[in-house]
Design goal:
Helix content: 40-55%
Number of helices: 19
Number of strands: 15
Radius of gyration: 23 Å
Strand content: 5-15%
Shape: globular
Structural class: alpha/beta
Length: 481
């Protein structure tokens, strides 16, 4: 009998979240099962899984989101709120609204006497004010440590308010250092409290397309366009989704995800519980990865012949345009930082444009990352890998030493070093599929042609590190490997 997945990604063998060294060393050690979990004696912040749990659902219609936490725990939701507002504008919504977020505001008194009454009052207010179809209750480090029983509270209050489905999500930040565990916590709760393992009649050609908050509307339309060409009806979830769309999940003939890290564990669960096959491929950024993603889902739904004809037409259309971008970027040295899926996808992308990879930062390293590194090592002569959940002090050290011509990814720190930057977690503009490739390539080239803003920023901003740090080994604080 299969062991139920706990929602903590470290619980599965072969996932590493602390490493620094060369790509060749990483490949060799992982292949020999010698890449062991390490730790840092100094850590400069981590991305919390609670934020990922909240962000992946915050655009759901008719929902309220209750964070059973101190106020500070929802500070990072500002990015997801911004994406939600921008996404509404792109989708033609005239009256832009914010997600409905309530914080129970746990304080010192709550830690001593418990915060369950605050949670009950928050749920009552959510029902009175909004009468939502769904109420998501998120645990936090504080509520987890004091042991508040959010499951029983949610069950009791749902009996009192049968018009709302009340869903507890266990996403205490201390449970996992791999922030993607937050996605898993949210999906586990959806399966338990909404889908409930109930089988439904299959809808022909219906495909679940899982998408995180950082996917732009342009990317959504491109993915839907590509899937429609092979005859698929798309159930786009959970971003800008609804209770009705979530309930359709078990009716699909197949599942795929725009980001493999986002929904890979949930798609495995859907296969186990509902018999829905899935395509476990790559994030569709760049020609190679877009082809691979497209072929993956086409194979699952039996459209392999059709997809080859479509890919041939798409290549004929875009390759002359890619060649023009390549002429602008060839030979440029680049450092990449993003989520695990996007980092490796962007690394493959730069080969389309003849760029050279000198460094890559990713939050985790696992079997999928190994496949990508083996591919990248065949293209690029040894590059640096920093496996780090945040840790900007390491990134700044590396970027300062490597002196790349361009930085692709989350740009704040590199921009302050005066390096031309392009954001790869751009939820406002296209980055994926065949059309996203062209936009992203031109964007990188334009940034290299006009780096004035970053140069002026570097001249007026002082980073919080001593000059002596830049002379140190960037990975000196990683120990216990």
């Amino acid at each position: 009998m299969a062991v139920q997945y706990s929602g903590v990604r470290e619980s599965k063998e072969g996932r590493v979240n602390d490493f620094g060294g060369s790509s060749a060393e990483a490949q060799e050690k992982f292949a020999g099962k010698c890449l062991k979990r390490a730790d840092r004696t100094f850590s400069q912040g981590l991305q919390c899984q609670q934020i990922n749990s909240m962000a992946c659902l915050m655009s759901l219609e008719d929902s309220v989101f209750i964070s059973h936490s101190p106020q500070g725990c929802v500070g990072c939701t500002i990015m997801a709120v911004d994406m939600y507002r921008v996404g509404q504008a792109h989708r033609g919504v005239k009256e832009i609204k914010n997600p409905r977020i309530i914080v129970t505001n746990l304080d010192q008194k709550s830690v001593v006497f418990g915060g369950e009454q605050k949670l009950r009052e928050s749920v009552q207010k959510a029902v009175e004010r909004y009468n939502p179809k769904m109420i998501f209750v998120y645990s936090s480090c504080a509520s987890g440590i004091i042991g508040d029983d959010i499951d029983t509270i949610c069950a009791t209050l749902e009996d009192e308010h049968p018009g709302s489905t009340i869903i507890p999500i266990h996403c205490e930040g201390f449970k996992s250092k791999i922030c993607a565990s937050g996605f898993d916590a949210a999906f586990i709760a959806i399966n338990k409290y909404i889908l409930k393992k109930e089988k439904k009649p299959t809808v022909p050609n219906l495909v679940n397309l899982f998408a995180p908050t950082t996917v732009s509307y342009a990317d959504q339309k491109e993915m839907e366009r590509m899937l429609s060409l092979i005859g698929a009806e798309v159930n786009y979830i959970p971003f800008y989704s609804s209770l009705e769309k979530i309930k359709r999940i078990p009716q699909a003939v197949a599942s795929t995800s725009i980001c493999k890290v986002f929904a890979d564990e949930f798609m495995k669960t859907l296969e186990e519980d509902y018999g829905i096959p899935y395509s476990h491929t790559v994030m569709p950024i760049g020609i190679r990865n877009t082809d691979k993603w497209y072929r993956g889902i086409a194979k699952v739904i039996g459209k392999e012949k059709e997809v080859e004809e479509i890919i041939a037409r798409e290549h004929e259309r875009i390759e002359p345009l890619v060649a023009k971008i390549r002429a602008r970027l060839e030979g440029k040295r680049v450092f990449i930082c993003g989520g695990t899926g996007r980092s490796f996808a962007a690394a493959a992308l730069i080969d389309d444009f003849g760029m050279k990879l000198v460094g890559l930062e990713t939050p985790t390293y696992d079997d999928d990352a190994q496949v990508d590194v083996e591919y990248l090592n065949g293209i690029h002569k040894d590059f640096v890998i920093d496996v780090a959940n945040m840790q900007p002090f390491e990134q700044v050290n590396l970027v300062k030493k490597l002196k790349p011509d361009a930085f692709i990814g989350v740009p704040e720190w590199a921009a302050k070093l005066g390096i031309p930057t392009t954001h790869v977690l751009d939820g406002k503009r296209p980055t994926m599929g065949y059309d996203g490739l062209l936009y992203l390539g031109n964007k990188i080239a334009d940034q290299l042609s006009n780096p004035g803003f970053n140069k002026k920023l570097a001249a007026h901003v002082k980073l919080p590190y001593r000059e002596s740090w830049y002379e140190e080994d960037a990975f000196k604080y990683i120990v216990g490997e």
